[in-house]
Amino acid sequence: MPRTRSRTPAALAADVVCVVVFCAIGRRSHAEGLTVAGVAETAWPFLTGTAVGWLLARAWRRPVALLPTGVVVWVSTVVIGMLLRKLTGQGTATSFIVVASLTTAALLLGWRAIARSFV
């Protein structure tokens, strides 16, 4: 139990960094500004989804686990992020949903897979 608790802040930080990196790369690839405000505007729907995923998965119990934690956090990040984007009039084109799903899967599941190899 103590070891899991010590990983929780780092795991949460890794998820937040992954989502912010995804949003920053997306903004850059579409020639949008890389300002803090711009990245925050793009990231907040996905970060909300990440937070909901953490709660649904009770990620603090097994923060580095691919299943169920990583998958629940990833799916929640994408689904809730896209729903919030749609509700606020931001883009949700099918191609964006596919790219966002694949990229966030690589990031949110990828860091966990790498971390698991060191445990």
From TrEMBL:
Entries under Pfam families matching the protein: DUF3054
Keywords, in A-Z order: Membrane, Transmembrane, Transmembrane helix
InterPro entries: DUF3054
Entry keyword Transmembrane: yes
Transmembrane segments: 12-30, 36-57, 64-84, 96-114
Keyword Glycoprotein: no
Name of the protein in question: DUF3054 domain-containing protein
Organism: Mycolicibacterium rufum
